[in-house]
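so my prof wants the structure for this chain in the tokens format not the other one, which i didnt know existed until like an hour ago. anyway here's the sequence
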Amino acid sequence: MKGDIFDAFKFKLIVKSPCLIGICLLIALYAISITFVEIQQAEIVERTLNDPISRTRLFSSIDFAVNVLALIIQLFITSRLIERFGFRFTLLFVPVGITIGFAIMAVTSLLAVMVGVEIFRRSGDYAIMKPAREMLFSVVSREEKYKAKNFIDTAILRGGNASSALAYKGLQAIGVAGAGMAGASLALGLAWCGTAYWLAGQFNRKQSENAVDALQN
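here's what i got, hopefully its the right format
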């Protein structure tokens, strides 16, 4: 655990670990995908609801639904997903759901679709995706966990949020809009799902290796 203050923000530990590289990619794609969702959501709401009071009521209803659903999922569903269907299914659950939402949004830009995707995205993130992401760090070394995680939670996540907004504006600048933007989001979602699938395999492999090492020691 020794090291200077700058060591926590270097990526030298990450480039040596396929698992940590996968986590970085997973979180970057997550950050980009949710930013695309949020921007498209704002555009759909602006086109559909002209009254600020109606917009406030809509977002209040979404917040309420997210909080209630996230609590129910955390209490009764998350642990059962892992126990019954395994870690890979659990890690893929939210990316697959959001990717399906992207596919629907590519076909139609109805407000109801956006509301459904937003409620699923936020409640699933709080109750399923975040716990699953934290579990990924349980199979890496202590140094990797406390040093690389610091870098990932700051530079990768925040960098992904900032760069995705710029990427969205860039796509708009070259004329991509509407269904085309939803199609780009769909491609991001598919990449996110592929990363989650591969990373879950890495998690299962390292978990087995750690269990064998523990028995041998």
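also thought this was worth mentioning. Residues 1-6 have pLDDT under 50 and may be disordered.
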